[in-house]
Description:
Layout: H1 8-34, E1 54-59, H2 63-75, E2 79-85, H3 89-99, E3 103-105, E4 121-124, H4 131-140, E5 144-148, H5 155-168, E6 172-175, H6 182-192, E7 199-209, H7 215-218, H8 223-226, H9 230-233, H10 235-245, E8 251-258, E9 273-280, E10 285-291, E11 293-305, E12 309-312, E13 323-326, E14 332-334, H11 341-356, H12 364-382, E15 388-389
Amino acid sequence: MRKEGTSDLDRRSILAGLGAAAFAASAQQASAQTAKGQPLIGNPVLPIPMGERMRWAIVGLGSFGVGQVIPGFVDANASRMTAFVSGNPDKAKMLGERYGVSRFYGYDNFDDIARDPEIDCVYIVLPVGLHAEYTIRALKAGKHVLCEKPMASTVSECEAMIAAAKAAGRQLGVAYRVHFEPTNIAAKTIIDAGEIGPIRNIRADHGFQADPSWPPHKWRLTKELGGGGSMYDIGIYGLNTSLMMLKGDEPVSVSAVYAYPREDPRFAEVEGGIEWRLMMASGAVVSGSSSYCYAPYQSFQHYMADKGALEMEPATTYYDNRLVRQSGGPPSTVGTGNPITQFAGQIDAFSSAARANKPHRTPGEMGLRDIRLIAAMYRSADRNGEVLAL
């Protein structure tokens, strides 16, 4: 029976609506019955569960530690921060609240980390002059150590750090992040594959304008904390990165000259610039410069070979590196990954090395090699560029 006041059109509309609703309900039920999930396809890299990751203490919460190292842990897949070591407890606790870290140490009770089972690895992010002391103390506390570059101020300090690692049965690495940076990895892949032929010449220039009024620059201009000058700081990028590309080749001689204004008051304790040159066993030449007098910031690597060349500018920065290939035709830019991944990649690689108790990709011995070369550069510069056999 038709309800009073309801037309045939109204009834059709109601019935159509009911039909649509029924169809939608049926479709939802069918969807719910079939959307049971799919198996994991391929072999994706999955993060290790938080509770199974290697646990790290960060020693030093300066601008580099806060701006680069800590964010690297946020992106890491096999590592997590469990402790902060700082001379500023308020800053440490503030950062702890932000990143979920609840264990705090100062430099006065640093050795207490030996009794902390929630620390497996220690990352030393202190000024160069403090690297040896805190690395050795952390190793004696039974922790694996990744130390920022340069490894230390002197050859003897590096040797003592390596000896402490061996005595403790722990791994010691130097934080040469460029070995984990996608643009530099791409360059090394091209070079190792012989695509541009044997390397004949490498040019590396790195520097910036040092500002003594800015705290991160101020300590670099003091001998005690900075290590000795620009080569210990920005210049080590050019040296280490160049040697990274020359697989199996070794330097046989070195020479260098100072290149900075001697009357500049910034350089009362450390040199402000150096021009250096290495002769390699293969006959290749590696030359470069390091300076606290360059503006703007310079980060340049040029690899010249007998079938082509690679140019990188910027070459070793945190955020924006560029690789251009030259092979006779128009230059072509080589696309690579995000440079930011270098920090997480480096941290996770060390976590893997520590877990297996096997050497890291950039071990203490590499850091010692570079400090030996830098020390030889300064000896040569003190002798007006004398060529020194290695």
